[in-house]
Amino acid sequence: MRGVAVIFCCLAGGLFGAVSAANAAACPGNPNALGTSRTITVDPQAMPKIGSMQYKTTLALEDHEVAITFDDGPLPPYTNRILDTLAAECVKVTYFLVGRQADAYPATVRRILAAGHVIGTHSQNHPLTFDQMALGRIEREVDGGIASVQTAAGDPRAVAPFFRIPGLLRNKTVEAYLATKSIAVWSADEVADDWYRHVSAKDIVTKAMSRIEAKGHRGILLLHDIHPATAMALPVLLRELKARGYRIVQAVPAGERPKVAPEPQPALVADAAGGWPRLAPTRETVGAAPTALPPKSLDRFGERKRETSSKGEHKSGRKFADKSERTSRIVRHQREKVSHCEMARRDRDPVVTASIARKRHKTAVSDAGWTRFQR
Ligand SMILES: [Zn+2]
């Protein structure tokens, strides 16, 4: 039965998805890059549902071919770090962006587009009730997300007719609505559990590789570009895919797409261990403070709830009325050799508390953390 299903998928892909050879030009600055071997054009009319985790049809990937997808972004600095890694390896992927996040970070949306990645959508607010929502709210979430991402990208053609339901909480009402709009609904073939609170980068790589191998050495891999562990795992995952002979395939929509502006290649530095180029730290990727704190609580499908307000500001991010007053208080505490935690506890200051959290958060994605993982 399973063999029949695989054959059907392959036949379906062959019939419905026009396969084209991709430009396999050398990757500037990285002769050992994984690269993108080819594209598959997806026609939502012919293949309205994609991904063997939930549907009978999936991309017509050949042996040792993987299509990578990222959900829930954009969210700097993680999305930026991931874009740097993808650019260094000349790997093209598909993003499923959340409208609210696109509203908050339009420059990152434009960077994703300019880098040649495909942009689908993932609703306006990422509610985890798609399987229970009335049609009116489904319409608002789907259409609102598309409108937000189109506005952020600055070109309506930038958004592919690809949609992934938050939490993969499918039902017939959502799927029927998407079909009326000729939008393909995307599930996945494999996940790497990168949304779990304490998952390590190493676990993400191990799970991704073992699940891809278990599903016939191919598949659509679902990751999230909003988590530090995913950002840390990606360079190693791409190296592992290359080492085991995998090739990257990018699913693209039919029709005209916006012109792709060339993205500046990030500088590469030789890894101390040799062989594997690492991204050189930049102000954007390392020095920049995260614009949102790490999400904490897990929701129904295991995805993390965002703790940002509608204005994109952290709930505890109260503005200082008097900056000098705060500075003098910090200096006073430093003279007394009081730890930041103790200082925050004494002052019951939500801003200082948030600052400490931000500092820890930044450390998690600093080069030190990166190097630790690479060992
Ligand atoms: Zn999601």
The span between the termini is 43 Å
Average pLDDT works out at 76
Distinct bound molecules: zinc ion
Q: With helices defined by DSSP (H or I, 4 residues minimum), what is the helix count?
A: 13
Helix content: 25-40%
SSE arrangement, N to C: HEEEEHEHHEHEHEEHEHEEEHHHHH
Radius of gyration equals 21 Å
Structure report:
Helices cover 40% and strands 15% of the residues. The chain is an alpha/beta fold and 375 residues long. The chain folds into two domains: 2-287, TIM Barrel, CATH 3.20.20.370; 323-374, no CATH class. The strands form two sheets. Strands 1, 2, 3, 4, 5, 6, 7, 8, 9, 10 and 11 form an eleven-stranded mixed β-sheet that branches. A two-stranded antiparallel ribbon has the order 12-13. α6 (172-180) links the parallel β7 (159-163) and β8. Zinc ion binds at residues 71-72, 122, 126, 166, 303. Residues 71-72, 122, 126, 166, 303 line the site of zinc ion (ZN).
Question: Would you summarize the structure shown here?
Answer:
This protein is of the alpha/beta class. It is 40% helix and 15% strand. The chain folds into two domains: 2-287, TIM Barrel (Alpha-Beta Barrel), CATH 3.20.20; 323-374, no CATH class.
Topology:
Elements lengths: L1 H15 L1 E4 L16 E5 L6 E2 L14 E7 L6 H12 L4 E4 L1 H6 L1 H9 L3 E4 L13 H19 L5 E5 L8 H9 L3 E3 L3 E2 L9 H14 L3 E7 L3 H16 L3 E7 L14 E3 L6 E3 L3 H5 L35 H13 L4 H8 L2 H15 L2 H8 L1
Parallel strand pairs: 2-11, 3-8, 4-5, 4-10, 4-11, 5-6, 6-7, 7-8, 9-10
Antiparallel strand pairs: 1-2, 12-13
Helix pairs in contact: 2-8, 4-5, 5-6, 7-8, 11-12
The structure holds zinc ion.
